[in-house]
Write a structure and sequence with these properties.
Helix content: under 10%
Oligomer: single chain
Structural class: mainly beta
Order of helices and strands: EEE
Mean pLDDT: 84
Length: 67
């Protein structure tokens, strides 16, 4: 995944002033039915209105075989 914010625009307010944030630690994403610490979740968000545009886990391979 590229995770580039170059061509993104907020669908709520139209701003192109975007930022990146993350959940980590106890707020991370954990696999179902698998003993693993999981992964941090990162977000691309609008720094004007706060709308979350994208979210993704940093380590998607930790979720293989969980479905």
């Amino acid at each position: 995944m590229d995770n580039s914010t170059e061509s993104l625009q907020c669908p709520k307010c139209g701003s192109t002033d975007l930022g990146k944030g993350k959940h980590a630690g106890y707020n991370g994403m954990n696999p179902v039915n698998k003993l693993s610490f999981g992964s941090e979740v990162e977000y691309i968000l609008c720094t004007d209105c706060g709308f979350i545009i994208e979210s993704y886990v940093k380590k998607p391979n930790k979720f293989k075989g969980t479905l």
